[in-house]
Amino acid sequence: MAEASATSDSYVDLNDGRVLQEVGIYRYHHPLENAASFRNRLDSIEARIAELVKSGGAIVKSNLFTFDNSLAKGRRMTDDLAKLMLRAYNAEADNSIRSLKLGNVVTAKRRLEASRTAIAKLGAMMEMHISDHFHALRIEEIELTSDWLMKKQEEKEAEREERARLREERRVERELAEERARLDKERSHLLNALNAIRASGEADPDLELRLRAINDAIAQNDFRAANIRAGYIYVISNRGAFGEDVVKIGLTRRLEPTERVAELSGASVPFRFDIHTLFFSEDAVTLENELHKHFAARALNQANPRKEFFFATPAEVRDVLVEKVGNLLEFSEHAEATEYLQSISLWPTRPSSNPAAETP
Hints:
By secondary structure, this protein is α+β, with helices and mostly antiparallel strands. The chain has three domains: 3-155, no CATH class; 170-226; 231-344. The protein has eleven helices and eight strands. Strands 7-5-6-8 form a four-stranded antiparallel sheet. A two-stranded antiparallel sheet has the order 1-2. It starts with a strand and ends in a 16-residue tail after the last helix. The relative contact order is 0.08.
């Protein structure tokens, strides 16, 4: 909800959700290389803040205010009130930093600005206000803390994705090795059989054909093992989870790409994904990047470019794919959405905010 300062009729909007939507994509205030760099800069800022408080430069006040016609009493009163005001301001600053969440830096700075304005109004008689330099330092501290939290989150996500990538690579390596062993065994059996047939002066065209197919499969398997960029581009959708005209465009190096789709259809979504295409490419990495760039402006998550969901119809993705690869052997524009269609009539409520809650 919106809150107001104690001495002002103007309201300061402190609703994080509304503010985040108003501000949009997070932009770093002080771009640094990593979270450790932000932490070092924060340590330096905190030391400067403490030094400014110690030197008396945090709050400005008049030395000419009198009380009971006494300048000395007036100065003591001014000093005491300045300490109280500075304590209140710092408490607001510290609370804003403690309550910082990813992206809500605007709310934190508004809180601190409102506190500074209130102190200036209450201390107007004594010409008292938080100094510009001190306020700038505390604002910078809030910004750096927000940047630090965001950078830590990005690094954690990058680490998770890297671990997932390494797990996927190891799994693909095992699959390819197991497949090569199976093909070698089958090839050995075929060769033994063919050698025995040839020794008797006969021939078996069917076995010869199977041997050529096995040799081709071994060559393809070896290519996949040697070329990390080869794999399947998948285009999938989940009407019940994300609504109409939303697709996920991704890449898998699995020998059976449907297994990856089955994993994505796990407990994190209410319905199974529908597959529109599984396209093998010798440079699937480049093709996936090109597709993501083409639809980047239509990404669902504009704050995290690593996500792979886009506002696009399967037909639109098909057209771009055809333009880039020349031909598609198989592509389905229609999403069966079987589980969703079987479920929707039995839902107890259909919130209007749910884009998927529409009569099929």
